Amino acid sequence: MAAKKLQETLSKGVLEEVHRYGGMKQTGVSLRYMMEFGSRPTPRNLLLSAQFLHNELSIRIARRALELQSLPYGLSSKPAVLKVRDWYLDSFRDLRSFPEIKDKNDELEFTQMIKMIKVRHNNVVPTMALGVQQLKKDLKPKVDYQDLDEIHQFLDRFYMSRIGIRMLIGQHVALHDPNPPPDCVGYIHTKMSPVEVARHASEDARCICFREYGSAPDVNIYGDPNFTFPYVPTHLHLMVFELVKNSLRAVQEQFMNSDKVAPPIRIIVADGIEDVTIKVSDEGGGIPRSGLPKIFTYLYSTAKNPLDEQVDLGIANTTTMAGYGYGLPISRLYARYFGGDLQIISMEGYGTDAYLHLSRLGDSQEPLP
Ligand SMILES: Nc1ncnc2c1ncn2[C@@H]1O[C@H](COP(=O)(O)OP(=O)(O)OP(=O)(O)O)[C@@H](O)[C@H]1O
Ligand SMILES: [Mg+2]
């Protein structure tokens, strides 16, 4: 199917607007700023926030729509990618057709509208993954997919931008909660216990492991459960969940058919001055050194790929143990979004250590691709 060019999809006026907004500078926000601003959700602040988002979301979404139109290797014309692009264009149109936000009523209406935008984009990740899969099929004998650096870099920029957009919308919407949970400022928990979050995430990962294998190795967590710092619990949950899932799978595959007891996965939480670091260690046999450069690319997976066209578009599959190759690259983006990072150190023949660094200071600006 030929790609419908933007010119065919959009009226001239909207097309010009997409280019105009797509050329404007994005404005980053830090965790600390979101926390300070959000701690006073007065009507005036909510109005300011909505006015900022009206412009900022238009810029960020326009940039992504334009980029989706000019991807290498014909990725832009894959049906799934066209679908994603259309979501971005629809959202851009919604934003630009919304009149200037002048008072509380406008602000509430705007908040409803961006809430809908967030829902519209719920399935962007699996849908893009499907598009890349479609490309991979076409290129198969000719190109080693892992060499498609440009595509991996694009996906990094694209998903990073998505994390930012969803954080900004989610934060603004959550600030309208008349009874926020204690110590919560929107998505941010000002006294988040990393040990507690790691415990929940590990339990969730173990449930999936049970479902898949009928048993699950233990996960032991070391660290002070009373230690807290401001962070976004949903982000940390996602990262630890992915790391523990990888470790459980590795240990399970190693010990499934042996009569030895599976060694537990160990999570260590360290509170430094600059960083909080969470190490997830396993004895699951490690990753061969030749595989290491690929683990942060999209779709590098040693698992059977569960993503096929029936599961696709819209119907998000229930979580599986592994198979998309997205766990590590996406977790690293979440870590980097607030100034942290993720590193993987492996000893082939023994096990893997994942170091998740979270910046404690919260003052690094959002990375804006
Ligand atoms: N702790 C680990 N021990 C051994 N191999 C690992 C470990 N973590 C990751 N890997 C290897 O890296 C690959 C990529 O991991 P990643 O989490 O990105 O994707 P996945 O687990 O295959 O799929 P999913 O998207 O469902 O997470 C895995 O398929 C596996 O081969
Ligand atoms: Mg994984």
Automatic annotation (TrEMBL):
Main location: mitochondrion
Any one biological process term the GO annotation gives: regulation of glucose metabolic process
Record-level Gene Ontology MF annotations: ATP binding; pyruvate dehydrogenase (acetyl-transferring) kinase activity
InterPro entries xrefs: AK/P_DHK_N_sf, BCDHK/PDK_N, BCKD/PDK, HATPase_C_sf, HATPase_dom, His_kinase_dom, Sig_transdc_His_kin-like_C
Protein name: Protein-serine/threonine kinase
Keyword Iron in record: no
Cellular compartments per GO CC: mitochondrial matrix
Any matching Pfam family: BCDHK_Adom3
Domain Histidine kinase: 233-362
UniProt-listed Enzyme Commission number(s): 2.7.11.-
Keyword match Transferase: yes
Class of enzymatic activity (EC top level): transferase
Chemical reaction(s) catalysed: L-seryl-[pyruvate dehydrogenase E1 alpha subunit] + ATP = O-phospho-L-seryl-[pyruvate dehydrogenase E1 alpha subunit] + ADP + H(+)
Source lineage: Eukaryota, Viridiplantae, Streptophyta, Embryophyta, Tracheophyta
Family to which the UniProt record says this protein belongs: Belongs to the PDK/BCKDK protein kinase family.
